[in-house]
Amino acid sequence: MHFQDLIEKKRDGGTLSPGEIEALVQGIVSGEVPDYQISAWAMAVYFQGMSQEETQNLAIAMSKSGDVIDLSGIQGVPVDKHSTGGVGDKTTLVAIPLAAAAGVPVAKMSGRGLGHTGGTIDKLESIPGFQVERTLPQVIEQVNRVKAAIISQMGNLVPADKKLYAIRDVTATVDSIPLIASSVMSKKLASGAQGIVLDVKVGRGAFMKSLDQARQLARTMVDIGQGAGRKVVAVLSDMNQPLGRTVGNALEVREALDTLQGRGPADLEELSVLLAAHMVKVGGQADSLEEALLKVRTLLQTRAGLMSFQQMVEAQGGSLDLTRPDYGLPQASEIAGVTFTNQGYVKAIDALAVGRTVMRLGAGRERLEDRIFPEVGVELHKKVGDRINSNDIVATIYARDKSQLAQAAAEIKQAYTLTDTPPDPVSLVFDTIT
User: Fold this and answer.
1) How many beta carbons lie within 10 A of that of residue 34, not counting itself?
2) So what's the pLDDT on residue 364?
3) Percent of the chain at pLDDT above 90?
4) Do 100 and 228 reside in the same domain of the chain?
5) Each residue of 389-422: b (16+ CB within 10 Å) or e?
6) Residue 219 φ/ψ, nearest 5 degrees
7) Beta pairing class for 231-238 and 429-433
8) CATH at residue 122
9) Quick one: which of 294, 348, 277 has its CA closest to 99?
10) Residue 7 sits in which domain range?
11) CA angle 61, 65, 69 (to 5 degrees)
């Protein structure tokens, strides 16, 4: 097969057959297709798009391009949860323990943060002793025993996607819904879960800035998963302001633990409970979403989710002290409050700006090799709709060096927009795609 023919076909708006897509993916993995031809094909897709069938065939072909995780040894229906990334998004740390407490087995592979978005693995590694590296037999044994495991990626999963994404990243072709959807879902399919709950973030701090784009991406991913025989649901949630009140690894773990005891921010609790309920329903532990929501809320009230989180941490070598307010997590050496001289109502908080500030404090990476400082971050005491009076402490900066405090405080102030009158409330959840 001549790969130039596939480029021409897609350039001219044609539809690639399953065999042509399979040959393309195999050529990407083997190196038979040179980078410049992959780039040309990706650009053709960027402008011409792909049909739903093409997108599904691409996701399935990429999912089989490397190792495929076999979770058949897990008792029950293994369910995965995936977020498209945001600022302060620690729902995995709340939703998975709640789902596990409801009897849903969860074997989740998570990633590290890059840029302004946080990574679940980085957050968990702020827990002293927590081990993210696990073999498949260890994962299956742990999930059968305590129902949950969150690990870093194992094996050689979806090498075709790794190669394709690296090329998209340097050729301005990342922002293509068929390529985004097939990239995300190829990893989910290769990870072995039979149920998948997607949290598609929308807004300033998310990859998808508009609701229409996010809805299209969610629908495409759900269709891919269902076409591959998986149970999939997607929730579209707001990321115009950070989720919860903390941004930073140890701070977010602390907030998740507070939430599992009913002491967390209302928005984090609401979204985490909803995602956990969808996991419970997809996992066959409830016949309706209403039944699943009731079950999850009960588990939250009884702190069963907290115990589930503690069991998972202990199973992976971690140590938490639930009797301490800081849970034994790393603490910042430099702490300073951010105050405003003016007053008004919070109209908006730029989630992207907050995420970038926290990254520069050392909680995130500009490059994969950058060191993470688990103790640093920002805590927001005022969110959209809250009233700010003169000299109120609006936020707290947690840093490793006193020289970082002034710049971080100035950036956080800049991220806030105030207004004289209370803004209209904004929904946390925009839509659900099933």
Assistant:
1) 11
2) 81
3) 88
4) yes
5) eeeeebbbbbbeeeebbeebbebbeebbebeeee
6) -60, -40
7) antiparallel
8) 3.40.1030.10
9) 277
10) 3-49
11) 105
Domain identity same for 110 and 201:
yes
Q: What is the pLDDT of residues 170-186, one digit of tens each?
A: 898 888 999 999 999 99
Model pTM above 0.85: yes
DSSP 404: G
Say yes or no: 286 and 358 in one domain: no
Query: Last residue of some domain: 315, 345, 379?
Result: 315
In a domain, residue 178? The reply is no
Number of domains in the chain: 3
141 token code pair: 């044994």
| DSSP classification of residue 411 | H
Does one domain contain both 349 and 404?
A: yes
The answer to whether position 33 is within a domain reads yes
Alpha carbons 315 and 127: distance in angstroms, whole number: 13
Does some domain include residue 325? Answer: no
Residue 106 belongs to what H/E stretch? strand 106-110
Same structural domain, 86 and 15: no
In whole angstroms, give the CA distance from residue 161 to residue 185. 10
* pLDDT, greater one: 84 or 128: 128
CATH of the domain at 396: 3.90.1170.30
| Range name among 160-164, 223-227, 312-316, 365-369 with the lowest pLDDT average | 365-369
Spell out a b/e string for 142-178, using b for 16 or more CB atoms within 10 Å of the CB, else e.
bbeebbbbbbbbbeebbbbbbbbbebbeebebbebbb
Comparing 390 with 276, which gets the higher pLDDT? 276
Mean pLDDT of the chain: 94
Task: Judge whether 427 lies within some domain.
Answer: no
pLDDT given for residue 332 in this prediction: 96
Q: Which of 283, 315, 347 is the last residue of a domain?
A: 315
Please indicate, yes or no, whether residues 22 and 100 belong to a single structural domain of this protein.
no
Q: Which two tokens stand for residue 87?
A: 């600022």
In the predicted structure, residue 1 carries a pLDDT above the cut 80: no
Are 252 and 366 part of one and the same domain? no
Cβ neighbours of residue 189 closer than 8 Å, sequence gap 6 or more: 59, 60, 63, 224, 225, 228, 230
Q: Give the tens place of pLDDT for each residue, 115-174.
A: 666 789 999 999 999 999 999 999 999 999 999 999 998 889 999 999 998 898 889 888
- The catalytic site residues sit at 82, 161, 168, 183, 187
